[in-house]
Amino acid sequence: MTVDITAAPLKVAxxxxxxxxxxxxxxxQKIPSVEVTIYEQASVLREVGAGISIGANSWKVLELLGxxxxxxxxxxxxxxLNLNGRSGEEVHRREKPHSATGRPPIRTQRTKLQSAxxxxxxxxxxxxxxxxxxxxxxxxxxxxLTFKDGTSSVVDLVVGADGIxxxxxxxxxxxxxxxLKFTGTTIWRTLLPWSAVSDLDPRFGTTAWWHTPTTHVYxxxxxxxxxxxxxxAWHDPAVHSASKVSWGVPVTNEHVESHxxxxxxxIREALARVSAGGWRExxxxxxxxxxxxxxWSNRVVLVxxxxxxxxxxxxxxxxxxxxDGWILARALAYYANDTGRALSLFNxxxxxxxxxxxxYLASEAARRAKKxxxxxxxTFDERVRGKVISDGGGGLDWIYQNDIEAVWKTAVGYxxxxxxxxxxxxxxx
Length: 429
Ligand SMILES: Cc1cc2nc3c(=O)[nH]c(=O)nc-3n(C[C@H](O)[C@H](O)[C@H](O)COP(=O)(O)OP(=O)(O)OC[C@H]3O[C@@H](n4cnc5c(N)ncnc54)[C@H](O)[C@@H]3O)c2cc1C
Hints:
InterPro entries: FAD-bd, FAD/NAD-bd_sf, FAD_monoxygenase. The chain is of the alpha+beta class and 429 residues long.
């Protein structure tokens, strides 16, 4: 199916207005003969959570989307530390190499990324208060979407950018539903003024993870005089999963602090200085690998968290979601809106990438377990040393230095220095 410009434009519905949905819309807007609408369940687009890391892979796709300069503040994370939260011992220091792109790795506020993306989405593209409740394949007519407010729409292509609890995935990939499981990790996140804690420890000005064997507290400046805490604790999911559905819900200071009583006094004091009502709780869920990213004869495709419920395992999920959106648009442009061929190519490029992440996580879990087993009966400090988070190091350049433009060019047989339009220009567009 090759679409020419005299034909009706390809009607694309993006379900979800997170980083994946917004990036997909921006990328699709740049190609001809595509009509894009984002359907978002929220009545107001707002980001919950606190900070977000932007490294070389995310910068690359933000540049391709034309919004990198809009993400204009943040804290440079060239140095990251791992410390023992009970003794203060520095167990690992990573000094990141300076990037050839000239854009430093940063920790910034999640709202900065969202505003940058929003600024590039064409006005009128986003429809709010549109919670997808039903999706049906109507054959040649298209795919019908029904929203909670009773309205509906029929489109040619549905992009499921509706996050980890994706209705699009659960409808179009029936083998997958109900497989999400609480990982055992609960995260509490907040932002507070740096001035509120700067007297406590000079190391708090450096991005760092402070650990005990089953918890950690992440401290980082995020720019504009703000400072982030993301504190995590692990509980046996077999015992706690029933009560865990929370995502961004307010919790009391006492509740958060009760998980971090073993820490150094200055860390406990930093937690105590969070204003009442400042904490939000996030329970991390994960799901298995999905065998394909496309369904319903290549008229449904998943981008971002909906397709890989990795629970923020690599701290770069927004980057992955944006890369998905950019590749999808490139593939549609390349095949002149032939969704069959474009989505097959998208699947060929992105599915193995996510498969590699699942494989890495499984081997890493096995490696860590073996290391601890080899020690026999590890002490508190030995267990802490086994928990180092390398933030982009550790042989993960294929993620953190990923150049999605080079990936595309390789996939379609173009050389890395080729600056042509990434593929054949079809006469019809
Ligand atoms: C604790 C934590 C820390 C993280 N840190 C980082 C980091 O530092 N860097 C990074 O790059 N990534 C990070 N991530 C991952 C990142 O937040 C996610 O991977 C990213 O938000 C995924 O984007 P998305 O657009 O796929 O989904 P989401 O951001 O989940 O957006 C989905 C959207 O779909 C909407 N939606 C859902 N269901 C429906 C429906 N039925 N109808 C209509 N709309 C619907 C939702 O309201 C939401 O707006 C972190 C994740 C976690 C949990």
